[in-house]
Design brief:
The protein has about 450 residues and is of the alpha+beta class. It has a domain of about 300 residues: Beta-lactamase (3-Layer(aba) Sandwich), CATH 3.40.710. The protein is built from 14 helices and 23 strands. A 6-stranded mixed β-sheet has the order 5-4-3-8-18-19. A 5-stranded antiparallel β-sheet has the order 10-9-23-22-21, with helices on both faces. β4 and β5 form a beta hairpin. α7 crosses α10. The N and C termini lie far apart (about 90 Å).
Length: about 450
């Protein structure tokens, strides 16, 4: 009996030991597989300060300090830099979030399963592709007006500048009340990634690309604009009669009537297929950010409504980052590069993340992209004025004026520079800014001069 009791106890001890070893083994496996995720999970006080990253420092492309979060959240000493970069580094209270930097929390924190958070003291550093100097210049160009300006290297996808307005100083946040809320409308949004806009005539780039692919002999056609183009269900109008134009002239003069004819020839289904192929309204994902989705909805639309959609009105909406990626593809011969804003992360003297240029799916045939380059260059030569852009830069562009219900029109401009030395694409929206040519051309001219010194 005694031996039986000993045997039973020994068996129980062995079973308990097996359970403990199994549990410990399971924990160790889980630990080594998932510990980094546990440590950097949202809410971790070692890594996050509220909803934004709370360790290490963030600099611009030239090493200029944007954020020091090693002890407490300290922004640049320069107020203008603080204001122009807040939508990328976040504010102090989490009203403005910075998902691009937070996406690399693991690389910033420098966690390893043996040593733990060896960068808890804050030695991690994220270097952004942004230029603080260019950010400030863009913010000053917008002034008190709402909108956004972005400039990208279309060869690599580096975002050199992306400013959102209104903005504020994170060291002196505004008190937003019922009386002043209109002034601060959308201040917590990054308009470049999170907002959508009616594109207006910059969408004619999309329709022109579709026509080059779908309509044989489109470059040999001429259009006669009387100021109104009648369709079976309604009409499309221009501000004034443009007379007889070829396809290049229709683009340069932004002739609604000519583009209504183009859409009529192409048909709604073909236009929709090309818009989908170009991914103009699809979100773009990079650095943990997924941009807002645009819209091209011609479901049950009448023929005149389809025509207005091809002109950039009706129900059309674009996200600026997505559309800039499309325009960049034209500059790059039809293939877009994925945008990015985080260039490098280091921790403990080691590079823990290095951005790489990633080519996205080809947007259009190279011959179509090259033709669009010539058309957009013609816009500058014929309409906007070569002398209105910096010397030594072959700028290709398209302006737009988008009507908004109950408000003054938004001014838009997008385009690129052809020189290999300056592989820059750009997009501008000035809300209630009126005509794109009058408002946006002087802005981009000023910023391209700054780019000469920055890149």
């Amino acid at each position: 009996m005694r031996m039986n009791r000993i045997a039973r106890r020994s068996t129980a001890v062995i079973i308990l030991a097996v359970i403990m070893v199994s549990g410990l083994s399971f924990f160790l496996v889980e630990y080594f597989m998932y510990a980094d995720q546990w440590v950097i999970s949202k809410g971790s006080p070692h890594v996050y300060d509220g909803s934004n990253i709370g360790c290490g420092i963030v600099t611009d492309r030239d090493g200029i300090l944007l954020l020091d979060d090693r002890n407490e959240r300290v922004f640049s000493e320069d107020q203008k830099i603080r204001m122009s970069t807040i939508h990328w580094v976040g504010d102090r209270y989490g009203y403005i979030q910075a998902p691009a930097v937070a996406h690399y929390a693991k690389e910033m924190a420098g966690f390893d399963p043996i040593g733990g958070l060896y960068s808890y003291s804050g030695v991690g550093q994220a270097t952004l592709s942004l230029s603080a100097r260019l950010q400030v210049a863009a913010m000053e160009a917008l002034g008190d007006r709402k909108g956004s300006i972005a400039i990208m290297d279309y060869r690599t996808g580096q975002i050199l500048c992306a400013v959102s307005s209104p903005t504020y100083d994170p060291d002196d946040p505004p008190e937003i009340t019922e009386e002043n809320q209109d002034i601060w409308e959308g201040v917590y949004l990054n308009r470049f990634t999170q907002s959508v806009y009616v594109p207006g005539s910059i969408f004619k780039i999309v329709t022109a690309a579709a026509a080059l692919e779908r309509i044989d002999g489109i470059l040999d056609q001429t259009f006669h604009c009387t100021g109104e183009y009648d369709l079976s269900t309604g009409s499309v109008t221009c501000e004034h009669a443009h007379g007889t134009l070829d396809f290049y002239g229709a683009m340069a003069n932004s002739c609604n009537c000519a583009f209504a004819s183009v859409v009529e020839q192409m048909g709604a289904q073909a236009l929709k297929e090309q818009v989908d192929r170009y991914s103009v309204t699809e979100p773009v994902s990079f650095d943990g950010i997924t941009t807002a989705a645009g819209r091209f909805d011609i479901t049950d639309a009448s023929l005149d409504q389809v025509a207005w959609s091809g002109i950039g009105q009706h129900k059309d909406q674009i996200n600026l980052c997505s559309y800039l990626t499309f325009v960049s593809a034209i500059a790059n011969g039809g293939a877009a590069q994925q945008p990015y804003v985080v260039s490098q992360v280091t921790c403990g003297g080691e590079v823990t993340y290095q951005a790489q240029t990633q080519t996205m799916d080809r947007v259009m045939p190279e011959e179509v992209a090259l033709e669009l380059q010539k058309m957009m260059r013609s816009n500058v030569e014929v309409k906007y004025g070569v002398d209105n852009f910096p010397e030594g830069m072959t700028v290709c562009a398209k302006t737009g004026t988008a009507q908004a219900d109950g408000k003054a029109s938004n001014a838009l401009l997008t385009g690129f520079v052809l020189e290999e030395e300056y592989p820059l694409s750009f997009i501008i929206v000035v809300e209630e800014g009126g005509y794109g040519q009058n408002t946006c051309v002087p802005i981009i001219s000023q910023l391209l001069e700054v780019c000469k010194e920055v890149i």
